Fold each of these.
Amino acid sequence: MDNFTLRDGTLHAEDVSLPAIADAVGTPVYVYSTATLERHVHVFRDAVAGLGKGEPLVAFAVKANPNKAVLATLARAGMGADVVSGGELYRALDAGMDPNKVVFSGVGKTADEMAQALNAGIGQFNIESEPELDMLSAVATRLGKVAQIAIRVNPDVIAGTHAKISTGGKENKFGIDYHAAPAAYAHAASLPGIRVRGVAVHIGSQLTDLLPLEAAFGRVGALIRDLRAAGHDITHADLGGGLGVPYDPARPLPPSPAEYGAMVARATAGWDARLMFEPGRLIVANAGVLVSRVIRVKQGATAPFVVVDAAMNDLLRPSLYDAYHDIRAVTPTGERAVTNIVGPVCETGDTFALGREMDVVAADDLVAFMTAGAYGATMASTYNSRALVPEVLVAGDRFAVVRERPPIEALAQADRLPPWL
Ligand code: LLP
């Protein structure tokens, strides 16, 4: 469910018409709905409420959408943050996230990033290798601090999603093999700068089947029992993110947060640990659309090419993962036709849809790429020397530019000539 609906024949974000935003800010532009963001937080929280020991900690995966206004909205709704870099940590804290509710994930944390996180007093580091444990202990000891950690285990399950976003197979770079985990925990317990508190797992993103998750959680449960038997004080279990969202209206719906919650209840019964979650896409994907204007319609061999002013640099998912985004006319006429939707970038991969039946659009019309709030603006680049796409947040009948479109001169001005030119 989202808050992008047709009113008087025109697509609105809550009470604001998308043409009003396009006229004020220009296109392409990302538009987010506060009401949808807040509803997703509540739906997810309700789905996991009462599970585990104490209230679950829901830490938003900042990588999905690090805009300050989005993070501040989520922080105000009580969410924590899952960060994977010093930059994400900075942005999460800058947006008002509680450091205690911050988890630091990722295989490549540097000593500087560890120090930054320790000084900020974050709640938990999710550790992905023994060398990382050693480095964190050394940094913490130097700073006179103790780092609270979980070890991210690699449960070796097939997540059944796109290979580029699967993380829980033993061939993937993530986590410590769950067979090797007991030895890693023993090592962690011997380090002066480390306090072990949990087990973490995350097997991939855009998961549309709960079985791989349940299998992974089963392995985590067995490990928690073994670790406790070995004397470790395991008080937290971080179950990661990954629940998929509906992108293609013609495909079956992915499991709902409530179904996910019921599975988690089953899988974690008797764990006696505080549960943590790291949803990203589920919170923000359907809270955002990318609005773009049709530049022109060009004849094609089999279907017309609708050339829009958004491109692969603004929304990379279709070209990187062959991802499907529903594309709608902002003011549909009711006519439908088979169409190719492409951007202006000089690559064949700059294609959003091929041979797709969709609303008929003409030059100057607006289109909306749906379900674009996650991994959209944050993966944008300036390829083809195109300005970074701006972002707008809507709340009821108000909207605000929450990231400006930088002037194209700023791109050129960041370059420097060496002294010999
Ligand atoms: N926790 C960890 C450790 C992760 O690596 C991720 C996502 C998440 C949580 C959040 O997963 P989510 O709930 O959003 O599925 N750019 C790709 C998605 C990459 C996801 C990477 N990790 C895409 O556009 O589909």
Note: Residues 211-229 form the longest helix (19 residues).
Amino acid sequence: MRRKIVAGNWKMNTTPAEGKALIADVLAKVGEVPAGVELIVSTPFTHLIPAAEQLANSGVALAAQNCANHESGAYTGEVAPAMVAATGATYVILGHSERREYYGETDALLLEKTKLALKHNLAPIFCIGEKLEERESNIHFDVVKTQIEAVVCQLSSEELAKVVLAYEPVWAIGTGKTATSAQAQEMHAFIRSVLAAKFGKQAEEVAILYGGSCKPSNANEIFAQPDVDGGLIGGASLVAADFIAIAKSF
Ligand code: PEP
């Protein structure tokens, strides 16, 4: 049985006080989530330390949205994986399309970040996905394969065991356009086949989340697909009732 995971990516939203209230709302409803479904919230860096205290012993895990590719030193504005881990966060989102697109994060940089995060016991939630024009040009499988081979396939099997993948078609992120459940399943099965080519049977154990305008009204159908193991949720994770409703959609 693979893990079932629903992770909320808050992006650059909420003040610390709003974040505290949102976590309180999530915790008030967490008892409704079926046993076996893992919840993760990914807050801005500024919220991590109080969020870790608030989430202690709740069963809800905490993630950062990025980390540096260096251990420490003269990298103004960066946050090292060891610093993130010291807050109590146990996951870090890496490779999000917004980081790739707006901050020029390359596969090579993401491999460095992923390796360093793992070294410091942060489990990467590693995002992959094609842009609209890539899907329209029918190169979406090649794009995703390249993203996986450049980073995930460079890891050892011990490292892979800690990684969660998130397939997020860029055209579906924050646009209200969701991939159909058939499109999601087709790509998730393909991702698993790319992993299997390198890691064999271990590919069956890797949790692959879907992300892109996932909401209470569509999560059920998407999560019912055999190779979809949950969701990475952006906008809908900012409303506790929606986030929890999605987590109840397995
Ligand atoms: C995301 O940014 O990871 C995401 C899936 O966003 P949204 O759910 O808002 O499309």
Note: The domain at 4-247 is CATH 3.20.20.70 (TIM Barrel).
